[in-house]
């Protein structure tokens, strides 16, 4: 982001995770509490990035293996006569999706628990930052109204 920017920057989707990376704005006079909030947000983003990159990689690999095994069982090749990639019908792919989700249920449950932990922490820190800013504004207003 340009040096004059005063906001977070959101990039294009990552090719592995499909998540949009965020470059967080760091104010010049960032307080310790604001830094903790920014770092918690960054940590949550990094955790999501790692999970979805691994998950999507495993999904694509297992999907290819499933398609290959089903086509092989039917005596078909991965490419048809015209060179296009051979596909399976929706019912066959539904079997794969159901099996993949069942095999990865524990990983998804753990991800959801971690996601909630990250978000509760971020929300708590956001509340603290908002309270500190409100109190600072009230003190400033009281000081300036009295003058």
TrEMBL record:
GO biological process, one term: intrinsic apoptotic signaling pathway
Membrane topology: Peripheral membrane protein
GO CC annotation: mitochondrial inner membrane
Broad class of where this protein is predominantly found: mitochondrion
Listed Pfam families: COA8 (PF10231)
Top-rank lineage group of the source organism: Eukaryota
Transmembrane portions of the chain: none
InterPro entries according to UniProt: COA8
Subcellular location: Mitochondrion inner membrane
Annotated keywords: Membrane, Mitochondrion, Mitochondrion inner membrane, Transit peptide
Keyword check for Mitochondrion: yes
Family that this chain belongs to: Belongs to the COA8 family.
Protein name: APOP1 protein
Organism expressing this protein natively: Leiothrix lutea (Red-billed leiothrix)
Lineage of the species this protein comes from: Eukaryota, Metazoa, Chordata, Craniata, Vertebrata
